[in-house]
Amino acid sequence: MALKSAIRNLRNKPQFLFVCLPNILSFLCIVVGVAWLLLLPLDDNSRRTYISENALLPGQVHAYFTGSEQNIFRGYKQELQSLLNEGRETESQGDEVEVTPAASNKVHSILQAAGLKVATQKYEYTSSGVTHQGENIYGIIHAPRGDATEAIVLVAAWKTADDELNLKGVTLALTLARYFKRWSLWSKDIIFLFTPDSKTGTQAWIDAYHDLHPESVQPLPLKSGALQGAVVIEFPFDHNFQKLHIVYDGVNGQLPNLDLFNTAVAIAGGQMGIGANLQEMWEHDDSYEARLQTMMRGMTKQGLGYATGAHSSFMPYHIDAITLQPKGEGWEDEMALGRTIESICRSLNNLLEHLHQSFFFYLLMHSNRFVSIGTYLPSAMLIAGNFTIMAIALWMRTGYYSDSKATAPVDSDSKNTKQPKSGSQDDENKAKINGAALAERLMALPLTLVTGLHLLGLVPLWIFNNIFHQYFTMATYVFVGVDIVLPLFLAALLSNGLGVAKPIVPQQYHLIKSFALLLLGLSLSTLATLNFSLSFMIGLLCAPLSFVGRLEGAAPLRYGVSSLGFVLLNLLSPPIVVLGVCQYTGVSVESVLTQAAFGWNVWDILASALDPVTKLIHTSIPVLQSVPHAINLLHIQHLGLNPVDLRNARNLINRTLQQAQRQSLHNQVLDLIGLHLSLRGNGIEGKGTVVRRSPEDHLGQRRQGDFLVEEDTHIVSGQITAVKGEEQLSQPVVRCRGERIQNGVQEELAKVVDGVGDQRSDTEVVGAREALVFGEVFEVDAGQVQEGVFVERGKFLFSLE
Fold this sequence. Notes:
Keywords: Membrane, Transmembrane, Transmembrane helix. The protein is an alpha+beta fold. Among the domains are: 100-367, Aminopeptidase (3-Layer(aba) Sandwich), CATH 3.40.630; 604-671; 677-801, no CATH class. Helix content is 48%, strand content 14%. The chain contains 25 helices and 19 strands. It has an 8-stranded mixed sheet, with helices on both faces. A 4-stranded antiparallel sheet has the order 12-15-19-18, covered by helices on one side. Strands 1-11-10 form a 3-stranded antiparallel sheet. Helix 23 runs antiparallel to helix 24 (666-675).
């Protein structure tokens, strides 16, 4: 009865129910959320790290990288140093050392001399008017005990993430390549990648490895299997080091599997006796303050979402990667770092499956202490929940106050206890209450305004990602002005109408705020599961929005408080926050926004892969060129694209077909859908040529290399199936001609043909009279052609079946 009486009293106090109580609950959510985060470094809320994947066996093998290998290291270093010095003297660049073609060629020759299969890749990116170009060099050690289905990557960029020359890192990687080649214990291929820098080179290589590279990036002539892990080597100074700094933060807050980090710490500290640090905490005493500071530094990097090293490019492809950075001055030399890397590779070599047992969402506060997602997530959820509470309260308030005067004096228990009410009076009061609950809400204007303002946010997003970096500072101040003027204009328009529209009623004010807070709360709750730090940071910055309301009262007081609130809200707006942080840290706005635009244009995988499609979909020729990029996305389901990205790719194809049909190019686009398939089996790469069949030919006839379209595209060694098309149209004949023929490819193709011929009888041999090879027509005799594979002496032609 007491609870029922309390609920009845709340209904009779709308001011407390709809105004005071939501504010109290929202404030408590914020306070508890912040307090929850501050309690995480305590021993009761965090736990020690451990290895979940038993197959890793960190530090259980002896590392032999020592002795004579140090002489090899010194020889390689001296050769590369002399080539770099010659380039500096030739180009007259003072103390700045640039990577010369001679040094790159030397790396290429060293890898070849060590017995690795070596290839190069040129790339070019343009962002904010700045062109980033270079050439990657990589070599592959094929596993003597493996089948080339899995690989480990060792990366050594010429320039570190801090733009320092990484000479000893490159030299150490070359020495390890020569050393690893002599071992027969590897069950996984090992790829040694040398890039010009730590930002663009690795991104271009990993995009091309998964066939998601833009047109300005060359495809890879050599590939291996699925990448199980990556280790980046940075050694930018000449003296010995004391400790090992492990960098693990990825793009957009992505993190590697915790087992990889724990393996590196266990090997460095337990086996090699090298201390391990993280988040630039060089002196960590494991106190509460040190743990909290380490955690906050990690949250800041995760929330900002920028790449902290070459390892960050691997994260979006679900490839666990870390960067090893020697720090300090001590007694550890390059051989100690080499043994550490050798032991890490030996642990990754033991894996039977991809790392999956440990955590992908965590906060590290020491090299041996962490907090998992189940422990830290409630803090961000509480921050996001305060917006949802206020949104629901405002929604209920708009329905109640539409008939508040009729429903407010409902408290009849105290005044009429001695006078029983008649049945008609009870029915009248119930009708009034129900009428208030079901009051009509004017939702058209609030929904339009909230949706329109959110869509308006696409304008600065597009502008800052497409203008030159010289205009970033000016554009920022322009948007600061717009950010100040636009709310004032909208407030004046909504309040007074400015003679254009009718002023809105208080209910619409509450609905606008309710929709905005509800959308903010839902977005932050979803974001918290993906990037906890970013959700928490945005939630704290937006927390004042929950308590800002429409003021009533005397005009002077109302105007004064409104002006103060307007100033405070502008100080917390994104442009002002960016300017304030830049002023405090001494970093220019131009450099910050240039980095942000670079991240959008280069580090965003799906955007870079779909960029040619979105740019080339409005005219006839671009339509024909846009299809292959969307088709390529459908070919890599096993390489990391999730169902949402695949669905987006299919939608792009449908839009392209609709655009082509309006321009009478439907059949040509269907041809391209059938032909543009990447031939990756046995190292063969090619491009197709289509010949239309005559209308009287029936669908499904197997003559001159016809093929039936299948639904699910899958590429295996030596075989390829096609993408599902519209089967009611005339069946295209698709043949592929080689464009990039590497040495030994013809011999490999001959083996495939022989294998096909051994499995088919003479009656199954299909003849073909014409074959398009390198744009020319050659006569091919019957009998030279096996079903599904066309061969012509001296040249080859791959047909799709």
